[in-house]
Amino acid sequence: MKIDPKSPSDLSAQIAKAIRDAIMSGALIVDERLPSEAELSEQFNVSRPTVREALKRLGAQSLIRTQRGATGGAFVNRLRFEDAYGQQITTSTLLLSMNEVSFSVACEARYALERACAPLAAERRTADHLATMRAEAHRQSQPGLTDEAFCASDVAYHRALVDAAGNPVISYQLAGAVEAMQPLMNMITFTARSRERIVDLHSQIADALEAHDGQMVDELLSALAQYTNELARSVMDARQAARQSD
């Protein structure tokens, strides 16, 4: 593991990258103890605070864990897909908010990805997945539910649908699509949507999953995507008309 002291990059970032690369290449294996701060400081020819900052970076990425005591230290962590969900969601949210991605493009991507889960979800869904989806659909039908709570329930519903595919790689990849795109889309459409129509579609999707009917799930998700786009167009048309009247 080496760094370039002449590089303009932060030294702690270089150390973190060197250790991360060693973990990814298999040079450092899961549960292996890293050299001590003093040893890393000598190896990289940097101060111990610089090493400490590098280890903090790796810890924030869940790549290492620290243990106290005589047998403690920093150890290579076993990174789970669930541990990386947050980073995927944050990255997707930033990309959507910092770039000019149209609603239709975001909607197309989000539902195309989710529809890809339909056949697997119909085949592999469990009673727990169905119970979660039905519970969220019921929650969404409650008249006193706030818009924020409806949005959170909407995300939980679609999270269960994606997880029903039974593939952790798919669940990880779609974490951003569901938990980043969905709230942003809800922010635009919540004033115009019919909760009753959404609840009805959600209930039908759960019924189709229970019947192992992947084709019907796909068709219902297509209908939900079409309705979402219609909502967005109506909201944007109303905003345009309001601007023109000012």
What does this structure look like?
This protein is mainly alpha-helical and 246 residues long. It has two domains: 11-76, Arc Repressor Mutant, subunit A; 81-245, Four Helix Bundle (Hemerythrin (Met), subunit A) (Up-down Bundle). Helices cover 71% and strands 3% of the residues. It is built from twelve helices and two strands. It has helices spanning 11-25, 37-44, 48-60, 81-98, 103-115, 118-124, 127-140, 147-163, 168-173, 175-189, 195-210, 214-245; strands spanning 64-67, 73-76. The chain has a two-stranded antiparallel ribbon with strand order 1-2. β1 (64-67) and β2 form a beta hairpin. α2 packs across α3 (48-60), α5 (103-115) crosses α10 (175-189) and α7 (127-140) runs antiparallel to α11 (195-210). The longest helix has 32 residues, at 214-245. The chain starts with 10 loop residues before the first helix and ends with a helix.
CATH domain topology of the largest domain: Four Helix Bundle (Hemerythrin (Met), subunit A)
CATH secondary-structure class of the largest domain: Mainly Alpha
Q: Using the alpha-carbon principal axes, give the shape.
A: elongated
Number of strands: 2
How many H/I helical runs? 12
**CATH homologous superfamily assignment of the largest domain:** GntR ligand-binding domain-like
Mean pLDDT: 89
Cα separation of the termini: 63 Å
| Strand residue percentage | under 5%
Fraction of residues in helices?
over 70%
For the biggest sheet, the summary is: 2 strands, antiparallel
Low confidence ranges? none
Backbone CA Rg: 23 Å
